[in-house]
Amino acid sequence: MAFGTVIALALSGCSSSSKDSSTSSMADTPPGVPAAAQLDRDDVDAAVDQLDGFVETIMTNTGAPGVAVAVVYEDEVLYSKGFGVRKAGDPAPVDTSTMFQLASVSKPVASSVVASVVGSGGIAWDDPVKNHEPGFAVADPYVTANATYTDLMSHRSGLPDHAGDTLEDLGYTYPEILDRLDQLPLERFRDNYDYTNYGFSIAGMSAANAEGTTWAELSKQKIYEPLGMDNTTSSFDEWVNTPNHASNHVQVDPAAKTWEAKYVRDPEQQAPAGGASSSVDDMAKWIRMELADGEFEGKQIVDPAALQVTHQAHSFAHPSETPGARDSFYGLGFNVNTDDRGRVQIGHAGAFALGASTDVKMLPSEQLGIVVLANTAPVGVSETITAQFLDYVTNGELTVDWAPFIAEQFKMVIDSERSDVDYTTTPADAAPARPATDYTGMYTSPYYGQAEVVAEGNNLVLTIGKDLQQSYPLTHYTGDTYWFEPVGENAAGPTGAEFTVTGGPATSLTIEYLDKDGLGTFTRAPQ
Q: d(Cα 116, Cα 119) in Å, to the nearest integer?
């Protein structure tokens, strides 16, 4: 789900009151030149003093099991602290070394990895990714041959929103997903923004191939080891087998504010886009490097020119919908926006519906950054803390009631992914189903593979996914339409399973939540 970009859009368009910045003297620099810092240490210290309260309040109001926060200012870590527990029901505490899955905060971290390869001359931002990822292909041969690292990492390749993600939910691997992307319809190349984890990951994998190594090893060599990020990895196995890691949690009862470590999210197939795990201590080191033009403790880790390209706007992500509101842009792994003081803000949010919430924000002109990691499904925990901190540091007080505003943004995102049909309520005039034998059998899709419908007693069961590994009981809705509730990162409540019957057995089956791009129809296989 597109939590990070939608919430970034909502926050980028918000205005809050600000201190009187008027002055009797003229500015030293014209617009467009980096302005002198508008904050001082007292402003930052005052906001840091509020962080314990911000965190404790949002944890109390949501029941979030664990949170960790770090703040960097002028190359100094002013705050780093863990709260709560790593796993609900287990007393082991979150500390500043606890490893959280970063979800899409992996993207800005990955952009620094690729920038280091660019800076060393291994690739160029405008090289075609196919040079080093020969399996890459989309529906248009021109795009296949010419799509660059910049195109894919700024989501302007033309691939549709979240292309390939549902294949991952069904158990397919990165090479298998890569092999199917040419079946997807394309938007206009370099003239459209659609957020794609696999488009981004293809660029990362191509960079790793150019260096003759894996993505996890490239990340370790280029960024994690040079920065001393000892509790950071792009390997799922390393994260899940580290004792001090935060488990994924989903909310089982919002009214009771209870959470359960029900799922384990394995994002390794899209590792550059969402597969990193880290601690706030380590992320603070990375922020220091980002704000210091690629330098860390006297050593140049990433070429400054290559790094700056990642902070520049490359895609027009979201035009403003209100007169006078600010537009939103995307760089290479970063949302790039302007705050109500005219300062460039870069950052990214991350979320796994199966149980992770992260956010990082930086004001380069202020040399200020904050990172928040939480072990909750996305309900706004991390984004609320970063918004409160940046509001307070700018204005000396909170000028927006951020928690309910951000929670509502997340609710709208989740609701927008749900079916328009309330399958849990059977229509009063529901038509009867046909005999089960009209529906049972094997169906196939060039994109999604096989789907099988079998009768178990008086019920129908749908089995889908790679090697038919996921099974769901089907509940009759009306006529030839059934429904089920899938599980996965991109699942969003009950979804339809509609059979096409033209006389005799059903000829096809369309699964609603897999049909966003028109590829969700499975045709009955020949007997």
A: 5
Residue 132 CA to residue 119 CA, distance in Å, equals 17
- Within 10 angstroms of residue 35's Cβ, the number of other Cβ atoms is 16
Complete DSSP assignment for 57-107: HHHHHH--SEEEEEEEETTEEEEEEEEEEEETTEEEEP-TT-BEE-GGGHH
Q: Within 13 Å, how many C-alpha atoms sit on residue 180's CB side?
A: 19
Predicted confidence at residue 16, as pLDDT, reads 45
Cα(70)–Cα(474) distance, rounded to whole angstroms? Answer: 47
pLDDT at 13 (0 to 100): 44
> At 492, is the secondary structure helix, strand, or coil?
coil
Residues 354/250, Cβ–Cβ less than 8 Å = yes
> Phi and psi of 405, rounded to 5°?
-60, -50
44: phi > 0 → left, psi -120 to 50 → alpha, else beta; which?
Answer: alpha
DSSP state at residue 28: S
Distance between CA atoms of 191 and 198, rounded to whole angstroms? 19
The dihedrals phi and psi of 207, each to the nearest 5 degrees, come to -65, -40
| Residues in CB range of 393: below 8 A, 6 or more apart | 39, 43, 44, 46, 47, 368
- The C-alpha atoms of residue 370 and residue 280 are separated, in whole angstroms, by 9
Q: Would you call 51 helix, strand, or coil by DSSP?
A: helix
| Enclosing H/E stretch for 262 | none
CA–CA gap between residue 303 and residue 301 (Å, rounded): 7
Distance from the Cα of residue 385 to its chain's centroid: 18
> Could you tell me if 512 and 497 are in contact, meaning their C-beta atoms sit under 8 angstroms apart?
yes
Give phi and psi for 456, each to the nearest 5.
-125, 100
Burial of residue 344 (CB within 10 Å: 0-12, 13-18, 19+) is middle
Instruction: Give the pLDDT confidence score for residue 41 in this predicted structure.
Output: 97
Give the pLDDT confidence score for residue 507 in this predicted structure. Answer: 97
The pLDDT of residue 324 is 83
Identify the three-state secondary structure at position 456. Answer: strand
With CA atoms as reference, report the closest residue to 490 among 5, 107, 161, 139. 161
* pLDDT value for 527: 74
- Separation between Cα atoms, residue 38 and residue 35, nearest integer Å: 8
DSSP state of 128: B
| Six token digits for residue 23 | 């002055």
Length of the chain (residues): 527
Please list the ranges in the chain whose pLDDT falls under 50. 13, 15-24
Q: What is the DSSP string of 209-260?
A: HHTTS-HHHHHIIIIITTTT-TT-BS-HHHHHT-SSBPPP-EEEETTTTEEE
CA 322 from chain centre, in angstroms, equals 26
Query: HEC string of 184-217?
Result: CCCCCCCCCCCCCHHHHHHHHHHHHHHCCCCHHH
